[in-house]
Amino acid sequence: MYTLNLSRLSKYLLLIIFPFLGMVSHAQHTQHTQRCIPYMSSMVFEKWLNKKVDAEATKRITAEIINIPVVVHIIHNGEAVGVGANISKAQIESQIRILNEDFRKKLNTNGHNTHPAGADIEINFQLAVQSPDGIPTDGIVRVNGGRESWGFTNGPTMKALSFWNPDHYLNVWVCNLPSLLGYAQFPETDVIGVPQNDDTKNPLTDGIVVHYQAFGDTGSVSAPYDKGRTATHEVGHYLGLLHVSGDGACPTDDFCFDTPPVNGQTQGCPSAIPIACNGEPSQIENYMDYTDDRCMNMFTEQQKIRMRTVLANSPRRKTLKDSPGLQLVNLIANNAGIASITQVQNSTCDTEVIPRVLIRNFGNNPLTSVTITYNIDGEAPQTLNWQGNLASLDTVTVQLPTTQTTRADHQLNVETSLPNGQVDTDIVNNTKSVNFTVQALNTLPLEYDFADTTILNTQWQIINPDEKETWMPIIVPEQSQGRGNNAMILPYFDYSDIGQEDQLITPLLDVSAAPQLLLEFRVAYAPFRGDESSRDGLKIGVSTDCGQTFTIVYEKYGDTLATDDPASDNWKPIRANQWRTEIINLSKWAGKGNIQLGFIGVNDYGNNIYIDDINLTSDPLSTNPDDFIVVTPNPTINQEIRFNLRLPSVTNTLDWALYDLSGKNVKRGQVTNAQFQTVTIPAQSQLRSGVYILKVSTPQYTVTKRVLVF
Question: How does residue 225 score in pLDDT terms, banded at 50, 70 and 90?
Fold first, then answer.
């Protein structure tokens, strides 16, 4: 039976509570839980929006009916259309209808109301009729995401599966969200860019996400969220609306004076309407409350002003009404273009460029030939004449000839012309460019103490698969004279996703002329006290294929990795003797071209791992026996003594002994197959402060070192 101690419980509670504070908006799909978590708006954003509201009021004469093109990305798990998350077209179309009923306050629909504050927002929604590629579309994209369900934290990964330009489309992702109804990305200002949090500025995640059982009013919907109001609610957030409570107790505000102030959101659909803080009835029918779908039917005039001001001023909102997604496509006879550049390099480490382009037939006639012209960095163009038989709107991948380039930043430019030997009268889709980089090749030695973060940000790579906690620079207490206090940390104390691996990868290193290779670095780690089952790990890997695969040369976990006693707090090394120097012989790769090293953390929700002072050198080892043994730290401020072995070759047996100044043996031991180990002499209760003599012996030599113990 597993027992959870109080220290571990506190970690779990923190991890349950705090991730919600940074979320944009999300709701749980259960009968008795809230639609959305609290969302506190930024006062900077509110001041900006208030100024824009005043400016719009002075110039607006009659409200314009705004049309917003919608693309619905159905992220399923391989189900047939109409089954599970792969919802039917009828269900999708029902949601678009509901958005229009709700935002237009349509008579004789569930979106109509007679409330004196109720407003026709004068916004229409329609499924896009033109894709970003300029071809006809029904506004629906179906993608097998390869997994049964998605959560808020892996939303960016899901959105990357299918995404259209948010300047021109409202992206709606529909998927299986087992514990959520939906969430939205809020708008940003056109001045400072990030009024609420870092998420609002990311165009690659802009839009709303809705659980498939809460989308529309037919098909797979499930009561009480079966009237399509989740999408209405989330589009409200997308256009800048807060919850009616302002997500706080009165006088916290949603900045709309015609929504009565309330201390919290309303659950269910109560027959007795709660009283607001000002004595008026609560506005439980407002789409921005938490009530069940059947209870909702209104936006207010102030909410209308807020949303339309956002649409007129906010980046990626103000361009929607002029989107090409609203315009029908008229195909011409002969029209070829570039849908995308699908590949430039096999890897960023290789100077050999092997471009692949996706050619689309944008015309009515079958495409039998097209001329493709390309260049790198505007240099002399090269030409390829493609021939085949491509039906209207179909695509074909064309591989361009291999080109050698330099280790620098570059741009590949590609252009099509003469479809079927005719002049292309629609040149909008004829050209595409893409930037790419060939990594610089660095010479040895590699010496890095993480003090210069510019090097970290430009030359090193951090691979963070789940886009959560990962390697990051940190300042630790000064460790000893001659060493800085910059290091790298894996913050595993507050990271509950067990099994996640995060990679810190070195620049590309030229080892072709190296006679040998020796990696040295320092590590610090204290296991989490109270849950000995947590065994965080650190692996070191060598890659010869640009970081795609690694050969593991070092691997330690838990107690083996530990450099200090277990700790129940968010541990940080504060003394030099809480670090250990590791030395790894990598001479197997010496003289074999280019390599990269990966420092790979393995999370087990234990405690933080630190590394520092990475040194990869090809220098030959000293032949002076006195350099073979390094006591570190020395002096040591506790009774544990450590010494590093730096032997020029493997020694079958190495003996060591510790003596006090009277010549009395205090401790002795033996190391087999010795060369680059760190040896720890455990603390002894009888070891007093003073000077000791460490004697290290092999059949070939004997080394003595003075050790000072405080």
Answer: very high
234 is catalytic: yes
Neighbours of 237 (CB within 10 A): 22
Exposed, middle or buried, 230 (CB in 10 Å: 0-12/13-18/19+)?
buried
Q: What value does the CA radius of gyration of the chain take, rounded to a whole number of Å?
A: 32
CB 639 within 8 A of CB 709: yes
The tokens for 687 are: 């070891």
**Residue of 101, 188, 234, 469 marked active site:** 234
Task: Tell me the per-residue pLDDT of 383-439, one tens digit each, with 9 for 90 and over.
Answer: 999 999 999 999 999 999 999 999 999 999 999 999 999 999 899 999 999 999 999
What's the CA angle centered on 546, arms 542 and 551, to 5 degrees? 25
Cα–Cα distances in Å, from 542 out to 465, 521, 554?
19, 15, 10
Residue 36 burial (C-beta neighbours within 10 Å; 0-12, 13-18, 19+):
buried
Start-to-end Cα distance in the chain? 44
Q: Residue 95 in contact with residue 139, Cβ under 8 Å?
A: no
CATH of 625-709, one of 2.60.40.1930, 2.30.40.10, 2.70.70.10, 3.40.50.150: 2.60.40.1930
What is the rounded distance in angstroms from the CA atom of residue 192 to the CA atom of residue 706?
Answer: 60
Which residues partner with 367 through β-bridges? 390
- d(CA 373, CA 382) in angstroms, rounded, equals 6
Rounded CA separation 358/583 (Å) = 48
Q: Name the pTM for this structure.
A: 0.71
**Class assignment of domain 336-437?**
mainly beta
| Token duo for residue 52 | 């824009």
Q: What is the DSSP string of 347-391?
A: -TT-SEEEEEEEEEE-SSSPEEEEEEEEEETT-S-EEEEEEEEE-
Q: What is the mean pLDDT of residues 465-483?
A: 82
Helix, strand, or coil here: 400? coil
8 Å CB contact between 284 and 269: yes
Q: Using CA atoms, how far apart are residues 710 and 46, in angstroms rounded to an integer?
A: 59
CA–chain centroid gap for 339, Å, is 27
To the nearest 5 percent, what fractions of the chain are helix, strand and coil? 15, 30, 50
The predicted structure's pLDDT at residue 298: 97
- Assign domain 442-617 to a CATH class: mainly beta
DSSP calls for 460-520: -EEE-TTSSS--EEEE----STT--SEEEEE-GGG---TT-EEEEEPPEEE-TT-S--EEE
Where in the chain are the domains?
A: 22-247+301-326, 336-437, 442-617, 625-709
Task: Give the CATH class of 22-247+301-326.
Answer: alpha beta
Which pLDDT score, from 0 to 100, does residue 648 have? 86
The count of C-alpha atoms lying within 13 angstroms of the C-alpha of 350, restricted to the half-sphere facing its C-beta, is: 14
Rounded-to-integer distance, Cα 174 and Cα 209, Å: 6
DSSP 294-352: GG--B-BHHHHHHHHHHHHHSTTTTTGGG-GGGS-----SS-EEEEEEEEEES-TT-SE
Give the tens place of pLDDT for each residue, 85-103: 999 999 999 999 999 999 9
Residue 1 has pLDDT above 60, yes or no: no
Amino acid found at 187: P
Decide whether 336-437 matches 625-709 in CATH topology. yes
Percent of the chain scoring above 90 in pLDDT: 73
Task: Find tokens 């033109």 and name the residue.
Answer: 130
Element holding 572 (H helix, E strand): none
Contact present, 279 and 255 (Cβ < 8 Å): no
**How would residue 246 be classed by pLDDT, with cut points 50, 70 and 90?**
confident
Please count the other Cβ atoms lying within 10 Å of the Cβ belonging to residue 70: 25
Residue 374 has pLDDT above 60, yes or no: yes
